[in-house]
Amino acid sequence: MSERLLAAIAALLAALVLGLAIFWQPELPERPLPRAGLPPGGDFTVQAARGPVSLSDFRGKLLLLYFGYTYCPDICPTSLMMTSEGLKQLTPEERARVATLFVSVDPPRDTPARLKEYAEFFDPQMIGATDTPERIAEIAKRYGVFYAAQKVDTAGAGYVVDHSADTLIVDETGRLVGKIAHATPPDQVAAAVRKYLKPQ
Amino acid sequence: MKKISLLAAGLLFSAGVLAGAADQVSVQEPYVRLAPPNAPATGAFMVIKNNGDKDIKVLKADNPVSRVTELHNHINDGGVMRMRPVQAIEIKAKGEAVLKPGSLHVMLIDLKAPMKEGDVVPITLGFDDGSSKQVDAKVVRPMPANMPAMEHKH
Question: Considering the entire predicted model, what is its pTM?
């Protein structure tokens, strides 16, 4: 009898926790999309100056994933700077559990060496990588990232690339779990990261 | 007679320049964002205030460090940022235009040489009445909340 009561209480508590998890939405900058509304994501491998980098290399870490390009004159620097400043607000223990990866959607112009220098300008720990146009297109599609080259006569080498400017959050198990909107201020970046860092 | 009208026109012209849009305008917190290594372009940002009674337009900008200077804006299209040149930046009478990352900005395209922190880039804004104004913008490392330190030097 008391066991049944305990089970009932446990079920009630579980329902409450679940309900809270589903319905309680603190005001955070990342899009409050239900998991089902996020693109599938999944494993991939891209080429960095240090060699191939796979999503699975980041298991156990929260990964902030950004798709951009080095010729990007304004949007990428803004996003990357907000991210790197946000990460500075974490404790060293928290920071050690977060990785950042910048994937170029402009492989014709962005070499791994060029991307390394670019990414490290924002954060010495940030990895810059790319791959063949076909592979990048396939990865971007799985992550719901849109990009399209636009002809502009005066831009370097003749084109700019419109692209999704959200920072994607991939959890410790490799699952795409959220987004941080473009130009989210550093303190809110830190709050979003903390939200997804599992307590240890 | 011809000479006199020419002189008159000249006087009128110079008076026009002196009383032009450039004199109604004050620019605050101009800065150029330090371009990351390998980036061939970067943005310049500022707040342009129109202290006059007439609407004015910035039609162009120029600077000596890049081969091309353009006025740009960003359109946030469902999370996709699309950067596009604009023909003019309009500033209403007694109003202001805020040029900031992710929004309106002066684009310095095809940099002639890498810039470094602390460099000063003289940017000339050209207005719709033909007047112009030079703004000295300091090169700063990109900082959050567009803050070249919020130092109001007046």
Answer: 0.76
